[in-house]
Structure formats: C-alpha cells, structure tokens
Write a structure and sequence with these properties.
The complex is a heterodimer of chains A (314) and B (292).
Chain A (H helix, E strand, L loop, with lengths): L13 H7 L1 H19 L1 H4 L5 E2 L5 H4 L1 E2 L3 H8 L2 H33 L3 H12 L6 H12 L5 H8 L14 H26 L3 H9 L4 H26 L6 H8 L6 H4 L2 H11 L3 H29 L7
Antiparallel strand pairs in A: 1-2
Helix pairs in contact in A: 5-16, 6-10, 6-12, 7-10, 8-13, 12-16, 15-16
Chain B lengths: L1 H33 L3 H7 L11 H9 L1 H33 L6 H13 L4 H10 L6 H5 L7 H12 L3 H9 L4 H12 L1 H16 L3 H6 L8 H10 L1 H7 L14 H17 L1 H17 L2
Classes of the chains: A mainly alpha (314), B mainly alpha (292).
Chain lengths: 314, 292
C-alpha cells in the first residue's frame, strides 16, 4: 500500500524490478513499443526542419539549410493569418462552448422532471459521437446554396440567397456553431456530474435564508462550479496553438475561397506537406507549433496546479 | 410561490427542449432527404418531411453500391480488430502501471506521459509510417494513431490503482502468482473501465478518416468515413456509386439522396449502440475530467 521509495535501497535497479515482475514488464512491451515508434521516434525527425529533407537520403544525408525553412514561413503572408486564425478560432470555441454548456448544465440541474432530463441529456450528447465528415453533411443540408434550409428561408422572406461556400466571412461563425453543437454534450455531462455532487444541505440553508431559485443558481451552483470551469478552461487554453484539423479539414476541405478566414496552423502544415512535396517546410511550421504548444500546455498546467491543487494534468 | 415555481420549471423545460430539437432536427433532415425522391429535391429543395417519399437511394446502395459495401466492410473490420487490439494493449499496460509491486511504475508512467505533451506532430508521423511500411495496406488503417492512446492508459491505470491492495495481499497469501492476480483480480474488476475505453476506441476507429487520407489511396481500402468525404469532392466517385441500369432511363439518378443515405447508414451503428455508448462513455468522461 505505502509507496516504497527507491532512495532507501540504493541498488534496486530497473533490471531487478524486471526480474521480480516479469509479467508486468512483458505486458508493458506492446504499449512501450508503440510509444517509442510513434512518440519518441518522431522527435529526431523534427530536426528535418533544418534540412532540405528528401526520403532517399534520410535524416543524415539531406542537405543542412539552417533556418531557411522557418524564413519561408515567417516571410510569407500565411504566417500571421494561420497563427491568428488558430488562436482566434480556439478562443471563440472555448468561450462559446463554456457559456452554452454551463448554462445548459445549470438549467438541467434545476429541472425536476427526471425522465425528461435523461432524454434531453441523451440528445445533447449524440452529436459528440458523429465524425466531422458526417457533420459536414449535416451543415450542408442547412447551408447548401441550391437546396439548403437557410437559403429556402431567405428566399421565402424575399431576401437574396447566400452562397456560403464562396464567402469566407460566414465561416468562423459556422465553425463556432458546429463546434459548440458537437462538444457541448460532453461538457454538459461533466458539469452536470459535478453539480450533482454538491451537498443539498447548502441549498436548503439558502432557501431558509430566503434565497429564491434564481439566487441559489447564481450564488451556489455557479460559485461552486467555478473551480471545475476554470480547470477545464485553463486546460483548453493550453492547447490554443493546436488547431482542430479534423474539424476544419472535414468542413472546409481544400476550398481556397474560405481559406482566408479558416486556415489554421494544422491545415497549413497538412497542405504544404501534400502540395509542395517538401516535408521540411511543413516540419518547420509544425516544430514552431510544437514548441509554442509545449510552453502553453506546461504554463496551463502550472497555473492549474497553483490554483487547484488536485486538478492538474501532471 | 408554487405557481411561480411551476412557471420557472416550464420556462426551463421549454428552453431545454428547444436545444434538444437543435440537436435532433438537423439529423432528421439528413434522414428525410435520404428518403426523398431526387426530382422532388431538385424542385423543392431539402425539407424536413419528404415531399415525395422514395426508397431509390437505398435501393441503389443495396443493389449496385459495391463501393459502399466494400467501405462498410473495411470500417467494420478495422473497428472490430482495432478495438480488440487497443483494449488488450491498453489493459495490459494499465495493469503494469497500477501493479504496486512494480517499483518503477511512476517513472514508467512518465515515459508514456512525455509523448502526450510533446511530440513531432503529423510530419514525422507520416515519415515514420512510410519508413515502416504502413502505407497502402489494411495495417495502415489499424496501427498508426488509434491502436493505443496514453490518455486511455491513464484512465485504466487510475481505475486499477483504486482496486484495494488488501485483495491482492490476501490472494498472495493464498499462494496466487502474478498471472493469477492479474487475470483473476485486476482484469475482471476493471471491466467497466475496459468497456469505456473499448467504446472510445471503437468510436475512434469508426469515425476515422485521418489514417486513410494520409496513408491510403486505393479505393478498395477506403473506410466509409473517407468514402463520404470523397463523395462530396469527387464527382467520379459519385458516378461510380450510381447504378446506371436501375429504374429505367427516365428516372433521375439519385445524387443528393444517395449521399444522405450513405450518411444515414454510416451513423446507423452509432445509433444502434447509443445506449451502451452513453452509459460507458459518460462514465469515462466523468472519471477522466473530474479526477484528472
């Protein structure tokens, strides 16, 4: 039960541990192998950002070009655009998912009809299990320029139909709505689980002191929920430099007309990898992202640990 | 007071039902379009109730859509096999990291954790897949990315760590060896968390198109999600699916409804297993986020 410290016994090496627990170490092998190949082996390949990499000569034979690949990215007008879009979209995703899911979770907890509550919770969670490819079709039924519901409605009102797939200006909004639609269910489930854990006596005490339902919502539920909310938010802020590739590529694809407002770092890396045939340039961008991402994740974790001792990731 | 309370409840219920509808109606729309006659779609646009009911799209898929069945088969195979391997790998590693007699378990956990926070991203990943030969075959859809996730490993480890040590100690006193303890105590007691990660993995495999977009170009290896993606951008793919000989020359080839019908059969298994998904994944989400 008590964790034995290694310090006491100096000569307890990992080999001894292996000999004492052969089965455990054996069972660890597949997972370790996977982590080495797809996790640790990726790290030396990051060096290719400084090379003119080609698949024939590999990591050691390719020509060393220094920071040229970085220069290519930062001197292009793509850099401010994709970094800006990534951060902007992520901030919007965080804010709106937060507001919507906290509101709905609190309202759900207020509702006293248990069966209705169960049913509604199921409907909120369903989009979470759909892939972005499927959601792309769902969005298309609404935004299609020929047959879409929105344009049918607009023509009914006597307005001109909008061709969404050529106008980038609408897409940040569409992406935010889609993201909230897909992710709110999961967040609602988490928040609701936390709210259910609150002590009902607190509410009773508040009622006796004359607090109304609305007042109790704000002063008790929201107040007690705050640590969880902050925790989850800090964690997502840590990932602010990672664009949601799966979402944006599935919804926008290679549609050049929408790239100005929707292109994020991840889609940019993907495109350069596929189109230029020079992996070094995309690696440079990706390395830049990894480093920034690492710093923000660690920063977020540090903040979380500082303020909410048990909530930190590591 | 009572009346006021009722009003408040009604108001909340009304609002929440609106949100529910916003989750369901778009999907109903997709289903409805898949059952609508193609000519009616062209004339009236999409609508929530089929303006002219037709099974043409489904008939087309069932009779002629070889590619759809092929892709469906690929998806089912990859999901079943992948999930099985995933659960085995994660479960075994989770046991090793939770086993209190492994003294280096925390250091080993760190080993798995590092790559979760810092790794090279998609470019080196792609290079490695190419180097080890994970392109243009079924393994390319199975192994990279989804066969193992550190996040699930930590879910399992945390769950197994809470298994009381007294249980293990008493088994040891009765002369149980490591294998006996693992297979008779740890794994049977961790069934709920195993179900959770199995469903996480299954959803991941079923919804995956990333592996196929990066590593596969042969249409016979397209999983159904990638096929859907291609249907939208690739007109040839669409033509390939439309059964030219069917329903006479006068009938319109179902294009819109066929796409939506493919979407419907893609989400059908999720709908079918939804009660399980909800039960176990909710558990996993709550454990994963609240306990850290």
């Amino acid at each position: 039960m008590a964790r034995t410290k290694q310090k006491g016994k100096k000569r307890y090496t990992i080999f001894k541990d292996i000999r004492r627990n052969p089965l455990s170490y054996l069972m660890l092998i597949p997972a370790a192998l996977y982590t080495i190949v797809f996790g640790y082996m990726t790290i030396p390949f990051m060096f290719s950002a400084f090379l003119n990499y080609n698949y024939r000569d590999g990591l050691f034979g390719s020509e060393f070009v220094g920071l040229k690949n970085f220069e290519f990215f930062f001197k292009s007008n793509a850099a401010p655009r994709v970094i800006g879009n990534t951060v902007y979209l992520n901030i919007m995703f965080i804010i709106f998912t937060l507001i919507v899911s906290v509101t709905i979770a609190i309202l759900l907890s207020e509702l006293q009809k248990e069966r209705l509550k169960k049913f509604m919770q199921s409907t909120y969670l369903f989009p979470y299990f759909l892939s972005w490819v499927v959601i792309n079709y769902v969005i298309f039924t609404l935004t299609s320029s020929k047959y879409g519901i929105i344009n049918q409605f607009l023509t009914l009102c006597g307005m001109k139909p909008i061709n969404f797939y050529t106008k980038g200006a609408y897409w940040p909004t569409i992406l935010i709505i889609a993201k909230v639609w897909k992710d709110m269910g999961m967040n609602i489930v988490i928040y609701l689980a936390v709210i259910t854990g609150f002590d009902p006596q607190i509410y009773e005490a508040a009622m006796i002191d004359g607090a109304g339902r609305f007042r109790a919502c704000i002063s008790i539920t929201l107040r007690l929920l705050l640590p969880t909310v902050c925790m989850l938010t800090i964690m997502s802020v840590g990932k602010i430099f990672y664009g949601d590739f799966g979402m944006i590529y599935a919804l926008v694809g290679d549609n050049g007309m929408l790239q100005k407002t929707t292109d994020v770092i991840d889609t940019y890396v993907f495109r350069t990898l596929r189109q230029t045939g020079n992996p070094s340039q995309s690696m440079a961008v990706s390395l830049f992202q990894s480093v920034l991402g690492f710093v923000t994740v660690c920063g977020a974790n540090w903040t979380a640990r500082r303020f909410f001792s048990e909530g930190a990731l590591f | 007071m009572k009346a006021k309370q009722n009003k408040w409840q009604m108001l909340i219920a009304f609002f929440l039902i609106l949100v529910s509808l916003s989750c369901i109606l778009p999907l109903m729309l997709v289903v409805s379009i898949s059952f609508t006659d193609e000519a009616a779609i062209v004339k009236n646009g999409y609508s929530l109730i089929p303006s002219q009911f037709s099974l043409a799209a489904y008939r087309n898929i069932f009779s002629g859509g070889k590619q759809v069945w092929r892709s469906y088969g690929v998806s089912v195979f990859v999901t079943l096999v992948g999930t099985m391997i995933n659960v085995c790998i994660t479960g075994m590693a989770g046991y090793a990291l939770a086993n209190p007699s492994v003294r280096y378990r925390n250091e080993l956990a760190m080993f798995f954790f590092v790559t979760m926070v810092f790794n090279g991203g998609m470019v080196p990943w792609y290079m490695i897949c190419k180097t080890v030969g994970l392109t243009e075959n079924i393994w390319a859809l199975l192994i990279p990315n989804l066969i193992f996730s550190s996040y699930n490993l930590f879910l399992v480890r945390n769950y197994m760590r809470d298994i009381p040590t007294a249980l293990v100690e008493s088994a040891k006193l009765d002369g149980a060896n490591d294998a006996c303890i693992a297979f008779k105590i740890y794994f049977p007691l961790s069934k709920p968390i195993m179900a959770t990660i199995a469903l996480f993995a299954a959803i991941g495999y079923w919804n995956d198109w990333w592996n196929s977009i990066m590593l596969v170009s042969d249409t016979s290896l397209y999983p159904v999600q990638y096929l859907l993606m291609k249907l939208k951008s690739d007109i040839n793919m669409m033509k390939n699916l439309q059964n030219s000989g069917f329903a006479g020359a006068a009938a319109m080839k179902p294009a819109e409804s066929l796409q939506m019908a493919t979407v419907v059969i893609t989400i059908a298994p999720i709908l079918l297993f939804y009660p399980f998904l909800q039960k176990y994944i909710v558990k996993g989400l709550v454990i994963g986020s609240v306990k850290g």
